[in-house]
Write a structure and sequence with these properties.
Belongs to the CLU family. Among the domains are: about 45-115, Roll (Ubiquitin-like (UB roll)), CATH 3.10.20.90; about 140-165 and about 180-320, no CATH class; about 350-480, no CATH class; about 490-560, no CATH class; about 565-625 and about 675-750, no CATH class; about 750-845 and about 870-940, no CATH class. The chain is about 45% helix and about 10% strand. The chain is built from 41 helices and 25 strands.
């Protein structure tokens, strides 16, 4: 199969293809014709634009003509054109036609770029495009969090591209010295944590000024008589040379007219410089413009620094940025440009229709699924952006409520076809469930439900687009609107479920049929409840889940807040006892609301756990039966149903291998219950594990158990009892299995949280809700190996404290009016972090405070409290509140009255706390050094608060096929089939790009793995190129100091070193260390790895003393977190010994190597190769030490005329340093002989040639393209 991957969005990937084959034998993932379809061979066309040489462009048949337009607008010599058509033999091509449908278009066709007359719309698009080109290097959009821009700093550390820069030049024979000393604050043991280096300033970022002003003229719109001369609009421009000009945009292009600021004279000036493009006009009238304007494509910057991310990423720090005049930005802010309407006919977008139509796209084969997933993803990211913008407008008071007469908290809004509601308990809807606290929790629960139903993706069942936005202390839910729902009362529309929490309930056969399909994957049990007339009604979801048929005839479900069963540890029910495991930990506990439910991950883990138990029980009984058969006595097996948990413990001991259990159980299933014996075995096992079926393993939950107001019919009493037991078991499972397993994973370092976000992720992966954080910390506190969990405990405490602070901050902000916002935020941060004991708030100056306060105050907008109560907050009061919040929400005791006590007691860093609270609440602060510890003045002033951003939660649609390829690739790599793995992952990368576009977290993971494979297979430049993309992407999509970004920097440094770019490798490692210090401090197991890397590189460049500081720090940290007897510690000792050897301090070297030798000997035994290596090295060190001593004696004895044996002081070879680097980074090479490598290269070349030939005709089926010679693995 030929992979003529010629589409432009893949040009990046086309270079990275190791060889041009698609994986045809992917077995279940793909069948052959599918892969061919997406990889239709490309062809080349010639393009001729006015005033430029024709150039070749590779295109693929699926592309639309529009995509060629986009390429031309991104190309350097044509980037200033927007209004043109493409013509083939004088015929204009339709923008939305696929290339394969155009007659006569083939390899080598010539397409002409023809300038078209402007319309008002085209002229606006042109001005906007030119403004974007002028702004493309300016980072202010990234700081302001608009248009999906975000920051990236990698290029500062790699000096642009990672080509040959950073290689050490050979001077004669000497390597030139490179400066390796890091700034003081990066050295081990340094206590200062500066903030400014977080955003190093780039010289190239001061973009050359091309124009002073480009704005719409006050003479717009053209009067009628000028409209009839073709005037579309007028622009006002001030050039760098201070020349003020007025420009007419006409149908024929742009020209100078004779108007001035105060007189209107639309006649062309002389000369008028009429040009089709504004850039051509400006280049003629302004030499500075001509000199400074160049297309961003010329920039050395990597395209990944500029491409928009799918969802907005906000930065919590920013420098003071100059606010420049910008007509397009100003216009955007004040026109009703809701969701890029100027490109879409029909003004506003019908979000619901778009979201649902994309779901209905066909999905029978791979190309269809790709198209569908791409459409779903795109609409979701657009919807999330529009919803965020709308939610902010609502809270800022810029949207009129649909019920303006009601009080603020009850108002609802519609903007841009999106419905917005505030997270308050309106009309006592949630009174029984915890009032406002429940109303605040319900939207996120609902979002989790939407996510779960969306992932199951049942045809014919629709959910609403849902985004939850937290902004300025308010929680806003944004939802797409069901057609027709606003015209009718809710009571009439709901035909399934209940609108009053189960007092009245209705059902509907079509809904039951649709929901039945989701019940197995979501583990929801079909059940009956009683309605107000005591009739039994059948449901297949919780009662709150409502079914409404829209005017479009689609079946919608909404209010999915109880998709998953309740969490009994946080739901005390009278007369119900929890299992002992829960009671021992002090459960059940009172929670703020009654909506606490178990996470989907927990349900999955619990069912998996029960399945193993089921297998073991069945196997045990079969073994007993076998034994009984052998002894010919048939003992009845009725008494074989002990309580599941008990059984589990006994079975653990009684069954040798799970494999056998599975085998036995599979034989059971295979006999399909014809044999009464085996049927009985299954029945018993089913009963024991609480399966809802008696003939097979099937566990599902009834989400309505323990819902107040829901009643069950008498005939299901038995069932309800079983369900209650199941819920209790699940709650106990969380406490007795999941929390200990998390702690165990942290002990053996398979889970390595570095900050609050990664800690939360680690909890969530195991199905533990964050409300268990206090319980987790207490569990850690009681663990014998507590010292080895210090990093985890510290991150947990700081997460707990900042979350409590966030809860308090939320209500604190609700009472603050807009003009006092920065004063209020800085005051809160002072109370939270500053050592200054009496922080005083700065109230806004009197002259701004309105005298007319007493006027009628009913129609307030949500975000406009005007009280000044916030100003009376004091640090001691805030910390009291934090402690009581920790107690009441997390049931955890913090005995501290001030920030300094907390920092002292738990060994926290104030910068870390500042980062955590800012990220959680959306605060953006000025990047400068803050003096938190001054007792004389507060750390923050209101000038330091730059912005407050929304915190957005939304659904992330997945690229399923790509993900399967990725997983198969990973599996292949783990089995050692690197080449096949590499191909599958390249394929996954293509598919990811197809669905997500070029920027996405999952593409980042894909690139990282590819880079690692390239590296292992010896292709260092390729590894560098892929890893560079991974770093850029991680910075842009996750954030510049996200733990993942830190890891990516470390990988990139390794590949730089292997590529001989030593100074770059060091810069990258220093950057990683700085970020890690800021995010979690020095005391973290990952720091040992980082410091070993730095130490090794420094050793390689002969900076021995510096190298020792890092390696000894790594040794200390490894000893603390892995225990003094660990192999990691042995390796650390060895690395330190090597540096001492290079310094010729043999006594110290011997001392460390002996320590290492002892560990190897005790752990691995005398015969192990590691022990032997260490013992050899000890001998060598001893010889060197003796030789040195002899020489010294000789010198003492004979003075200057001593005959001195030349001693070997060797600088380590780069190869030996690289070998150690690979070992500590866990990279194992697969030795390839030279012959294998040559075969591989020849094969790749052969395929490339085939590709060149086979652009038009597919190679015949039997051409043996598969590599026969697999990579040999030792």
């Amino acid at each position: 199969m030929v992979n003529g991957d010629g589409a432009h969005e893949h040009t990046e990937e086309a270079e990275t293809k190791q060889d041009g084959t698609a994986e045809a034998d992917g077995g279940e993932e793909s069948n052959e014709q599918e892969v061919i379809v997406i990889q239709d061979t490309g062809f080349t066309v010639k393009i001729q634009a006015p005033g430029t040489e024709p150039f070749d462009l590779q295109v693929s048949p699926q592309e639309m003509v529009q995509e060629i337009h986009q390429v031309l607008m991104d190309r350097e010599d044509t980037c200033h054109r927007t209004c043109f058509s493409l013509q083939l033999d004088g015929n204009v091509l339709d923008n939305f036609a696929e290339l394969k449908s155009i007659e006569g278009l083939q390899e080598g066709s010539l397409l002409k770029v023809v300038e078209e007359p402007y319309t008002v719309r085209e002229a606006r698009i042109h001005v906007r495009h030119i403004r974007d080109l002028l702004k493309s290097l300016d980072p202010s959009d990234a700081y302001n969090g608009v248009d999906c821009n975000s920051l990236s700093f990698l290029s500062i550390f790699t000096d642009g591209d990672l080509g040959d820069s950073g290689k050490r030049k050979k001077k004669g024979n000497e390597l030139e010295q490179i400066d390796c000393t890091p700034p003081e604050h990066i050295l081990p043991g340094s206590k200062e944590r500066p903030l400014v280096p977080l955003q190093p300033q780039n010289k190239d970022w001061k973009p050359m000024q091309c124009l002073k002003v480009l704005t719409m003229s006050g003479w717009n719109p053209p009067p009628g008589n000028r409209k009839m001369h073709g005037d579309l609009m007028y622009l006002y421009i001030v050039t760098v040379e201070e020349r003020h000009v007025s420009v007419t945009a006409s149908t024929r292009g742009f020209y100078l007219n004779q108007s001035t600021t105060y007189t209107f004279n639309p006649k062309p000036a002389n000369p008028s410089f009429l040009s089709h493009s504004l850039v051509e006009l400006l280049s003629q009238i302004s030499p500075a413009f001509k000199k400074n304007f160049h297309c961003p494509a010329k920039e050395k910057r990597h395209p990944f620094e500029r491409i928009a991310t799918p969802f907005q990423v906000y930065s919590w720090t920013a420098p003071q940025v100059d606010h420049a005049m910008d007509c397009v930005r100003a216009e955007d802010a004040y026109t009703s440009r809701l969701g890029y309407e100027e490109h879409i006919p029909g003004q506003t977008r019908d979000w619901n229709e778009e979201l649902q139509t994309t779901r209905e796209l066909p999905r029978k084969n791979l190309p269809e699924r790709l198209l569908r997933e791409r459409a779903i993803f795109k609409v979701h990211s657009d919807f999330a952006a529009a919803a965020t913008r709308g939610a902010m407008a609502v809270i800022d008071g810029n949207v009129m409520a649909i019920n303006p007469g009601e009080e603020t908290r009850m108002q609802m809004f519609i903007w841009n076809n999106i419905f917005f509601s505030l997270g308050f308990d309106v009309r006592d809807h949630y009174r029984e469930l915890g009032g406002d606290a429940a109303a605040h929790a319900a939207p996120t629960n609902d979002l989790n439900g939407v996510r779960a139903y969306g992932a199951v993706d049942v045809e014919g069942l629709y959910t609403l687009g849902t985004v939850v936005v937290d902004y300025r202390g308010y929680r806003v839910t944004a939802q797409s609107i069901i057609p027709g729902i606003l015209e009718r009362e809710q009571e009439q529309s709901v035909i399934y479920g209940s609108i009053d929490f189960g007092k009245t309930v209705v059902s509907h056969s079509k809904y039951l049929e649709l929901l039945e399909k989701t019940s197995r994957p979501l583990k929801v049990q079909r059940h009956n409840v009683l309605n107000e007339k005591n009739d039994s009604v059948e449901l297949c979801s919780s009662v709150e889940c409502k079914g409404i048929i829209g005017n479009d005839g689609r079946h919608y479900i909404l209010d999915l807040l109880r998709t998953f069963p309740p969490d009994l540890n946080f739901l005390p029910v009278d007369g119900e006892e929890l299992p002992l495991e829960s009671q021992r930990q002090g459960f059940p506990r009172q929670h703020r609301h009654r909506l606490a439910c178990l996470r989907q991950e927990l349900i999955e883990a619990f069912v998996e756990h029960r399945y193993l138990l089921f297998m073991k029980m069945a196997a045990l009984q079969l073994m007993q039966q076998k034994a009984n058969k052998d002894t010919k006595t048939d003992t009845p097996t009725d008494n074989c149903t002990p309580a599941a948990s008990q059984a589990g413990k006994e079975l653990e001991e009684s069954i040798p291998g799970l494999a056998q259990a599975k085998e036995l159980a599979e034989t059971l299933v295979a006999e399909d219950g014809s044999d009464p014996k085996s049927r009985e075995v299954v029945l018993n096992a089913c009963k024991a594990v609480g399966s809802i079926s008696n003939t097979s393993f099937d566990i599902r939950f009834n989400p309505d158990i323990f819902s107040p107001g829901v009643r069950f019919p008498d005939d299901s009493a038995d069932d309800v009892q079983k369900q209650k037991q199941l819920l209790k078991d699940a709650a106990a499972f969380l406490v007795s299995c999941q929390i200990p397993s998390l702690v165990k994973d942290c002990l053996d370092h398979s889970a390595l949280p570095m900050d609050g976000a990664t800690l939360t992720e680690a909890l969530h992966q195991r199905g533990i809700n964050v409300r268990y954080l206090g319980t987790v910390l207490e569990f850690v506190d009681k663990t014998p190996a507590k010292a080895q969990l210090e990093h985890f405990y510290r991150i947990g405490i700081s997460e707990l404290i900042t979350r409590c602070a966030k809860h308090i901050f939320k209500t604190y902000l609700q009472g603050v009016e807009l003009s006092a916002l920065s004063a209020a935020v800085s005051h809160f941060l002072n109370c939270f972090l500053s050592s200054f004991p009496d922080a005083v708030a700065h109230l806004p100056p009197d002259e701004l405070v309105s005298r007319r306060k007493s006027r009628k105050r009913r129609n307030r907008v949500p975000g406009s409290g005007d009280n000044t109560a916030w100003a009376s907050l004091t640090p001691s009061e805030l910390w009291k509140n934090i402690a009581s919040e920790a107690q009441s929400y997390y049931h955890f005791t913090i005995q501290c009255e001030s920030v300094d006590q907390v920092v002292e007691k738990y060994n926290l860093q104030k910068t870390t706390l500042l980062r955590e609270i800012s990220v959680k609440t959306g605060i953006q602060i000025l990047i400068k050094e803050y003096n938190f510890d001054s007792r004389h003045k507060p750390a923050f002033t209101e000038e330091d608060i730059l912005n407050i951003f929304p915190v957005v939660k939304h659904v992330n649609p997945k690229a399923s096929d790509a993900f399967h390829f990725f997983q198969s690739g990973q599996a292949k790599v783990q089995q050692g089939f690197l080449k096949e793995g590499c191909e599958l992952i390249n394929e996954a990368l293509n598919l990811f790009n197809n669905v997500y576009g070029p920027m996405h977290v999952e593409i980042c993971a894909c690139l990282r793995l590819l880079a690692r494979l390239n590296y292992i297979m010896g292709d260092h430049p390729e590894a560098l190129s892929n890893q560079q993309k991974a770093v850029l992407m991680s910075e842009r999509v996750l954030g510049i100091e996200h733990p993942n970004t830190i890891q990516e920097y470390m990988h990139l440094a390794l590949y730089c070193f292997a590529n001989g770019q030593l100074s770059t490798a060091l810069k990258l490692l220093y950057r990683a260390r700085y970020l890690m210090l800021l995010v979690c401090g020095e005391d973290h197991p990952e720091m040992a790895l980082l410091d070993s890397n730095i130490g090794l590189v420094l050793h390689g460049v002969m900076e021995y003393d510096l190298s020792l500081r890092f390696l000894e720090n790594a040794l200390t940290i490894n000893t603390k977190y892995h225990g003094p007897r660990s192999l990691k510690v042995a390796l650390s000792h060895h690395l330190v010994a090597r540096v001492y050897e290079s310094k010729a301090e043999f006594r110290s070297a011997l001392q460390h190597e002996k320590e290492g030798y002892t560990i190897y000997k005790n752990q691995m035994g005398e015969a192990h190769e590691k022990t032997k290596e260490s013992s050899e090295y000890l001998k060598y060190l001893t010889q060197q030490a003796v030789a040195l001593q002899r020489t010294m004696n000789e010198i003492y004895k004979n003075g200057s005329n001593a005959s001195i044996m030349p001693l070997k002081f060797t600088a380590p070879s780069m190869a030996s340093v690289l070998e150690q680097l690979n070992i500590i980074n866990g990279i194992i090479f697969i030795p390839l002989s030279q012959k294998d490598l040559e075969n591989l290269k020849a094969e790749v070349q052969r395929r490339q040639q085939l590709q060149e030939l086979g652009k038009n005709e597919e190679p015949t089926e039997d051409s043996p393209l598969e590599l026969e010679d697999k990579i040999p693995i030792d």
